[in-house]
């Protein structure tokens, strides 16, 4: 039971570790008005947005955030420059957010530069096949994808630097994260190569 001076976001802070990120996106309020937004920190249970959109406590909000994809929830705290949102997410989405935040945290810890030319998107078709150097094939789930690389969920984790193909797209393992790997493609892909995953 929450006290009068507590919010669900306060509970979330104790339950989940919040990750400092800097991600851009767009959000839609319940009246269908849309606004650009920026995420400064988030956890698997909630997110804090800076935005020009004036939301109300309890209002449902849908947002699309770079590297994360769709977020859906209700406003639990309003602040001068935005608001905090608690997710309405099934267990599988929660697990996915944990993995995405782990990947983002590792990315920041390694101080990797952001390549705005190759923004990562969450594919509609997440089923993929990894092909390793010995020719073995393993199914995987694509978390996000760009012209220069991909993050995939897989039980088979080859060493960093190992050659690997995601379907016909050749690359190397760039990083490990909990539950998967990040792949850097050998050459910049053409947009047509990503089309099967986006339809």
Can you describe this structure?
With 199 residues, the protein is α+β, with helices and mostly antiparallel strands. It folds into 2 domains: 8-104, predicted glycosyltransferase like domains (Thrombin, subunit H); 116-198, Thrombin, subunit H (Beta Barrel). 18% of the residues lie in helices and 44% in strands. It has 3 helices and 12 strands; from the N terminus they run αββββββαββββββα. The chain has helices spanning 8-15, 91-109, 191-198; strands at residues 19-28, 34-42, 46-51, 60-65, 69-79, 82-87, 127-132, 137-145, 149-153, 163-166, 169-177, 180-185. It has a 6-stranded antiparallel β-barrel. A 6-stranded antiparallel β-barrel has the order 7-8-9-12-11-10. The longest helix has 19 residues, at 91-109. It starts with 7 loop residues before the first helix and ends with a helix.
Ends: how far apart? 44 Å
The spatial strand order of the largest sheet comes to: 1-2-3-6-5-4
Sheet with the most strands, sense and barrel status? 6 strands, antiparallel, barrel
Order of helices and strands: HEEEEEEHEEEEEEH
Structural class: alpha+beta
The coarse overall form would be elongated
What is the CATH superfamily classification of the largest domain? predicted glycosyltransferase like domains
- Known CATH architecture of the largest domain: Beta Barrel
Computed over alpha carbons, the radius of gyration is 18 Å
Uncertain segments: 1-14, 113-117
Percent helix: 10-25%
If you consult CATH, what is the topology of the largest domain?
A: Thrombin, subunit H
- Give the overall average pLDDT: 79
The CATH class of the largest domain: Mainly Beta
Q: How many separate domains make up the residues?
A: 2
- Report the β-strand fraction as a percent range: 35-45%
| Count of runs of 4 or more consecutive helical residues | 3
- The total of beta strands comes to 12
